Amino acid sequence: MSTPPSLLRAFRPQVQERLYDFYDELRSADDLFWDRTLRAWVATGHAVVSEAVDDPGLSSVRYPDMEDVPEELRPLAEVLSRQMLYNDAPDHPRLRALISKAFTPRAVRTLRGRIVEAVDRIITHAAPTGRMDIVADLARPLPLTIICDLLDVPEQDRPALAAWSEPIAEAIGNSRLDDDRNREASQSMTDMLAYFRELLTRRDTPPAPHTLRALVSAQAENTDQDLDELLANCALLLIAGHETTTHFIGNATLALLRHPHAADQLRGRADLMPAAVEELLRYDAPVQLMLRRARRDLELAGRTISEGQTVLLVGGAANRDPAVFPDPHVLDFERPGGRHMAFGHGPHFCLGAALARLEGAIVLETLLTRLPGLRLDGAAPQWQRSLNFRGLTRLDVAFTPPSDDQGAAMGSGRRCQQDTTLMGET
Ligand code: HEM
């Protein structure tokens, strides 16, 4: 077996555009290898990633020792260490229990009308111009709107949450930031938590029904979490639910625009939407890797991982493994079986998967039905620089603006009758 190049190369802009060829290069050299540059094991094969996410010997605790964390990152790391994503059992299920009540398929279904309404409003606003930047106009504002609705954040406070969330997501997705950016991320986390503390303990306005704020207020006394833990996990929802879904909308739209036959197939077959959403998640996943640390010496795919070593599970590469997905670089909505890793697997399986699927399905259906002649426009799409997240910084599209009569009919809510089976329940 040849020695694979470092995964760090994926950080280069020219590699981002041909990322999946690069992963093929890594996987065919070795599906699990020690990356000397990153000083971590890198898993790119589907079988190894699947084995690793279920292995209790691999821990999700990101900061086992705060003393090792650079001082400017410590305030951020201390909050992350209270989030379910960075905990193992028994703390992990304890932290997940209360919040997961807001994310059951039933609870998520109640958000359908609100998502349809938000997407319709954005499209109705953009339609007469015949142009949009899908990222700035739709993919960024929509998930933020929905997660803020779920948390019961008043409209006027949402821009501040978006501004805090950006440097935090950047710090999580990128281990090579300078000290000032890290300091900014830590400060943003401190500000966000202060905000949630005020929101969740506010007594002057009662929480809107069915929101997480209502759930927390009703159960705060009966839960085995302390307030700091609840606040840290609200911040997780905002960051995990916002950035990832933004990237999903951008990546999925780009994939459809680059595969007009697939877009046409979907236009004629609404029943294909749940499968299309899964295939688009597999094809270009917004979260490319998951991080684990060995709690003890263990065997993984026949290799010895030593206690304390980091293992990077490249779900984005596993999703293109030909051993599980024949012709993996083909976008195929009728692809049989094969479990993709876009939402992870095992105890940390994405809590917001049902919501992300629903948002994705509504957006794609709306774009395909309401924007005739939808096509790429302007400069080549630009990828954000990150090893962890994969998403576009902008995606310019053009389409045929509606005639005056059609324009008047828009926003009439006629799409709200949409089939509820689009959701692809977990
Ligand atoms: C397409 C969009 C999304 C993708 C691709 C995605 C991906 C993921 C992945 C891969 C994980 C597992 C990480 C690991 O095992 O280390 C995860 C966990 C998580 N996601 Fe998502 N996510 C998305 C949307 C959302 C949304 C909308 C929310 C909430 C509003 C959310 C909340 C969470 C939470 C709370 C966890 C941690 C679960 C746990 O540790 O038990 N995600 N997500």
In total, how many beta strands? 12
Radius of gyration using CA atoms only: 21 Å
Overall residue-averaged pLDDT value: 89
Content of β-strand:
5-15%
By CATH, the superfamily comes out as Cytochrome P450
Order of helices and strands: HHEEHEHHHHEHHHHHHHHEEEEHHEEEEH
CATH class: Mainly Alpha
How helical, in percent, are the residues?
A: 40-55%
Number of helices: 18
Terminal Cα span: 39 Å
What is the name of the CATH topology? Cytochrome p450
Coarse structural class = alpha+beta
Query: How many structurally independent domains?
Result: 1
Largest sheet: 5 strands, mixed
Stretches where pLDDT is under 50 for at least 5 consecutive residues are 411-426
Spatial arrangement of strands, main beta sheet: 1-2-8-5-3
What shape does the CA trace take? globular
Ligands, ions, cofactors: protoporphyrin IX containing FE
Can you walk through the features of this model?
The chain is α+β, with helices and mostly antiparallel strands and 426 residues long. The chain has one domain (7-423): Cytochrome p450. The protein is 48% helix and 9% strand. It has 18 helices and twelve strands. The strands form four sheets. It has a five-stranded mixed beta sheet with strand order 1-2-8-5-3. A three-stranded antiparallel beta sheet has the order 4-12-9. Strands 6-7 form a two-stranded antiparallel sheet. Strand 1 and strand 2 form a beta hairpin. Helix 9 (141-151) packs antiparallel against helix 13 (227-258), helix 13 (227-258) packs parallel to helix 17 and helix 15 crosses helix 17 (353-370). Residues 411-426 have low confidence and may be disordered. The chain binds protoporphyrin IX containing FE. The site of protoporphyrin IX containing FE has 25 residues, from helix 13 and helix 17.
